[in-house]
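request received
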Amino acid sequence: MDFTIAALLTQDGVITGAVYALLAMGIVLVFSVTRVIFVPQGDYVAYAALTMAALQAGKTPGVIWLLLILSVLATLMELTQHVRAKNLRKIPRALTQYLGWPALWILLAYFLAPVQLPIYVQAALTLALVTCLGPLLYRVAFQPVAGASVLVLLIISVAVHLAITGLGLIFFGPEGSRTTPYSDARFSLGPLQITGQSIWVLAATALAIVGLYLFFTHTLRGKALQATAINRVGAQLMGIRSNEAGSQAFFLSAMIGGLSGLLIAPITTIFYDTGFLIGLKGFVAAIVGGLFSYPLAAMGALLVGLIEAFASFWASAFKEVLVFTLILPVLLWRSLRAHHSEEDEE
Amino acid sequence: MKQKSLIALALASMVGLQAHAEVKVGVIVGATGPGASLGIPYKNTFSVLPKTLGGEAVQYIIMDDGTDPTNAVKHARKLITEDKVDLIIGSSSVPAATSITDISSELKTPQIALSPVGPAASKNPWVFTIPQPASIMMGAVADHMKANNVKNVAYIGYSDAWGDLVLNGLKTHADSAGVKIVAEERYGRNDTSVAGQILKILATNPDAVVVGGSGTPGALPHVTLAERGYKGKVYHNHGVINKDFLRVGGKNIEGGFAPTGPVMVAEQLPDSNPTKKPSLEFIKSYEASFGAGSRNAFAAYSYDAYLLAGNAVAEASKKAKSGTPEFRQALRDALERVKNVNGTHAVYNMTATDHAGVDSRARVLVVIENGDWKLVK
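response:
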């Protein structure tokens, strides 16, 4: 191995690592606010990439049917809840949130799909569609059991993942897709060929991380989310609605997942079931961060990306083995120095 | 409750009555899971097949194993013991098809595998395979390499049984073609990057690269090679022959070679080719249901399984009644005696020692030109 190859591998590792970092952010965010280990985080990636590909091919993206079903279910659940509690004032708000917004994006996607929109409009529409999934999934699958144990929530999250992947096969078909790159620019830096696309990935990841940081430290909503993450009951006593916090966490994580999908789609072929493996690697990264620290998770993601790139060079047959073995020393180290979490004390 | 069980009883007896009148074929395909892109076309064929098989009424019971060997075994056992099928067709992925072979010999039911099976299973007397063995297919690749003075070859393939089959197929011809394999790299179906493997391959400076992938994931190494400016030849295998592979690969995979069965380029074949007529028949009925250009190698394998089964059922039904062990035995014997059956992929000639029964007429080399497969003459 010489310097050129090392540099090329590092470049590859950093770019994949950046995508894993985004996923790890989503997983940490959802876990810390709702205690859900969100397995389908990777599925957002696949859904976003395939939705984008469908829009570029002038086809109606299948995701709108899932949105439609979820939106109707969520609205019905909200209505029953408010009617039973005789809380009719809350109904208009629930209608806009669970029926109005998704319906708007569904209609837009349905009517705009055959039109060849500019690429950034397509990307924005895709992001909106995938982001809508987050709060709806939370309302339908997780909010009714928000108080359950981590294990129950994990089982539900696995079930949601299986359902989403299965539907993905129906919506998008078994074959993979690639999308048009956002930029065809290429420049050379020594031996490295840097594509415009890879700069997009890095810039978007950096922006997302900085954005999240500012959101959590400088806005009231962000601080409320963080409060819920630190102490759910305490935050509730302070007047922070935990359900709303959960919904917002899912909203953000879906947006991050959708963003990763849009970034990665032009670089590689995405299949309806690609999401699981990518999500799992994001999860490994999140574990490195102990499922609570964003900077550590981002570093973990970079580590996973680099290990993957170098392992694929040295021992390609054992690449996945090496990546997932990484989790063992990390878990060991974590369990040795971890203080007991709330869950253990229960 | 009582009423319900009565209805169930009535239904069951109706099914029972029907069972004696027709041949039952259990079909197992991986229509979901990682092998779905191949499994779905495999399955599609069964919806356009005639209602008779070898002159007998037929019922196809189609099961989806999710590309999982465990499910495949479960389905095979259930199909044979509960549904009392006379024949198993499937499965569509190598690991699943290979695991079913144990069940078919244990329960003495003939199996026509839609994918190649592992080396031990291919000696199983109850198992017949449709797809050309990788060694036959890679023979076409090796011949082309020899003719074009290719000396050093690098290999990149799946880190699973398919990757091994293609590599071994290549190795059996490497010496006679004077080809040296200088690198063996692996990748996964769902991998998002093969940059590391490709860098290692490029470092060995090979004259040609052989890709052991299948379906759309098979395009990734070729695309990465093109992005790194590789100028040598790239050979694929018969697992990539479908339209979506071309769509995903786009311009990057122009000029790539692949061996395939004659059905894919049926129109370009001379009329004297025995596979041309069944191929055109298959294409006509398949594309009538699934759209022009929807033909693919996998659906055609299912069609060949149907042709072979029809041939054997016609033979076996002279000796025994369907649904009996004698019929299954007769069916197996008939399959082993198949002679000169013209399929879409090959002319099948089974013997006691050769349960694939294909020769070099079962392969053609095609090249990707302007986003379509062209026959290499």
